[in-house]
Amino acid sequence: MKNHTLISFVVAVGAIAFFGAGCNPVASLQQKAAETAAGGVLSAASGGKVNVNDNTVVFKDNKTGDIASYGENVKLPETFPKDIPIPSSAKLIGVNISAAQKTASVTFDSSEDVSAIVSFYATTLTKDGWKESESLSANGVEIRAYEKANVKISFTAGPKDEGGATATVVRNEE
């Protein structure tokens, strides 16, 4: 648990430092220098590898292989579980992988509404042999869980004020 607190702290500090600096074309060289410096400082403080680049903070723990990535240009790491479907409309804003805890999660924004996200996961997961195990709806937010063998995928999708939806999908393995 201490490791996850450190990862969260490192990513949060990096994101605050980076996003607080603002972005504009005139300051791109200053921004790149700040990103490099922030990544170096955070890497040294955390004992892991921190990259601050292109409006995104990526932390990789060198000992455990855990990864946390947040920002505007998040990419799925190669080690991200292939059984977590991602809608084509998804704009990734966060990814976490913990090998020790056998969990992975992804958070994304979508131009599609909540019902389209729910439908995507219901159709895709059921087709792949997953069974719905939980369902909850409250105040426009939808929560679903699906199970297959010793793995559970759950997601929460809620509406964004400007339209579309934000969703978080979590995969846990026992």
Summarize the topology.
Elements: H1 2-20, H2 28-46, E1 49-53, E2 56-60, E3 67-71, E4 90-98, E5 103-110, H3 114-127, E6 131-138, E7 141-148, E8 151-159, E9 165-173
Antiparallel strand pairs: 1-2, 2-3, 3-4, 4-5, 5-9, 6-7, 7-8, 8-9
Major beta sheet, strand line-up:
1-2-3-4-5-9-8-7-6
Tell me the name of the CATH class of the largest domain.
Alpha Beta
Overall residue-averaged pLDDT value = 80
**CATH architecture annotation of the largest domain:** 2-Layer Sandwich
Report the order of strands and helices: HHEEEEEHEEEE
Helix content: 25-40%
Main beta sheet strand tally, sense and closure: 9 strands, antiparallel
Give the overall shape, derived from the CA principal axes: globular
Account of the 3D structure:
By secondary structure, this protein is of the alpha+beta class. The chain folds into two domains: 1-67, no CATH class; 74-174, TATA-Binding Protein (2-Layer Sandwich), CATH 3.30.310. The protein is built from three helices and nine strands; from the N terminus they run H-H-E-E-E-E-E-H-E-E-E-E. It has a nine-stranded antiparallel beta sheet, with helices on both faces.
